[in-house]
Design a protein that fits this description.
371 residues, alpha+beta, nine-stranded antiparallel β-sheet, two-stranded antiparallel sheet, 8 helices, disordered N terminus
Length: 371
């Protein structure tokens, strides 16, 4: 088990080194796209619903089941949908056109509450033809005027919220027949997310975000096995202990931190990513390999797709449990609880797309202790 994990780490390290030093290799070409093109589009983004619809109708074929997709991949899929307008309803076409505009501008991943007039904050001065064209109001080749150029960054503030209500209980209370207290009939999960994304080089993009959560958790309002934590630590509240799991009669506070560092070759055929977000390896919801409802975790992944007929993906990650933080931080090799909670996850998937209507894939996975 240990040797297998070590071999996978070594393979990922070699691939990462090739990408990082690719500019020094004669004849190598590294990607020069807009800033957010290599960054992942989170699984909660509504664009995935229209992508799934297009795939079911045969508009999109040979899609990899390894998600999330990058912003550049999503844009290409939207362009393919725009070429087949007859397959969609008028309302769906409006959505597709809207998403296509947003992703082509480099702002499709999220909407900022705070940003400059161009939707970005320039942190480093650009030089060369691209900067001259941008200053003259013309977009460089392969980008738009609103998209970021190498050496620049976008900062913003995003707000997300999810609410749930026990409608049967609320109706019963209104009718005077309810027995459940009102405090148990509503749920709130909200995040205020300052973020910063940057195009460090023409081939490397980074993003970091720090979410501040205000939550009132009611697991009973979820269907079985559908509840998933959206925070990274216990909640701070007004009880004597000042610490809880968020399942209180009033909202309490927590945090959620995520990041994405991605490098990609010129044609997009090879990508290496170090990130922390939710992932989904499978078709539909609830994949046995890796479900999109699983907690975000830090992972180093590689995707290699030299043609539309073949793809290989690999992932090495560190699984964590904030409720077992003391055990995860333990360095005592004799502590059985520490070893049981310090987990490494390794996944590999090979996908073949011989026809538009057929996908054949094979997946291997391993979970082991970090030592």
């Amino acid at each position: 088990m240990k040797s297998l994990l070590s071999n996978r780490i070594a393979v990922f390290s070699v691939i990462a080194a090739l990408l990082l030093f690719g500019t020094a290799i004669p004849g190598s070409q590294l990607q020069a796209q807009t800033s957010s093109s290599r960054l992942a589009v989170e699984l909660s983004h509504p664009v995935y619903a229209i992508i799934e619809t297009a795939e079911l109708r045969g508009v999109l074929t040979r899609l990899s089941s390894v998600k999330p997709y990058t912003s550049a991949q999503v844009l290409k899929l939207l362009e393919a949908m725009l070429a087949r307008p007859e397959a969609f309803s008028p309302a769906e076409r409006v959505l597709i056109e809207h998403y296509a505009v947003e992703f082509s501008r480099g702002t499709g991943q999220e909407k900022s509450l705070l940003a400059d007039d161009q939707g970005s904050l320039r942190l480093f001065p650009e030089t060369g033809t691209a900067a001259q064209e941008a200053s003259a109001g013309a977009a460089p080749s392969g980008a738009t005027a609103d998209a970021l150029l190498p050496g620049s960054a976008r900062a913003g503030l995003r707000f997300e919220a999810t609410t749930r209500f026990g409608l049967d209980g609320l109706y019963a209370l209104a009718a005077g027949t309810g027995t459940a207290p009102l405090k148990d009939l509503w749920h709130l999960n909200s995040r205020l997310v300052p973020y910063l994304s940057a195009d460090v080089t023409p081939w490397l993009s980074i993003k970091g975000e720090a979410g501040f959560d205000i939550d009132k958790i009611e697991r009973g309002l979820y269907l079985p096995y559908s509840f998933s934590k959206e925070w990274d630590a216990g909640h701070i509240d007004f009880s004597p202990s000042r610490y809880s799991n968020g399942e209180l009669d009033y909202p309490s506070f927590s945090y959620d931190i995520r990041q994405d560092i991605a490098a990609q070759t010129d044609d997009g055929g090879l990508m290496v990513r170090l990130s922390r977000f939710r992932r989904d390896w499978g078709v539909g919801s609830g994949s046995f390999s890796l479900s999109g409802t699983a907690r975000p975790f830090v992972g180093l992944e590689m995707a290699f797709r030299p043609s539309r007929f073949f793809a290989v993906s690999g992932l090495m990650g560190s699984l964590t449990n904030w409720e077992k933080g003391s055990a995860e931080r333990s360095t005592d090799p004799s502590a059985a609880t520490a070893i049981s909670w310090q987990k490494m996850l390794g996944l590999q998937r090979m996908e073949l797309f011989p026809f538009d209507w057929l996908t054949v894939s094979a997946t291997s996975s391993v979970v082991g202790a970090k030592r």
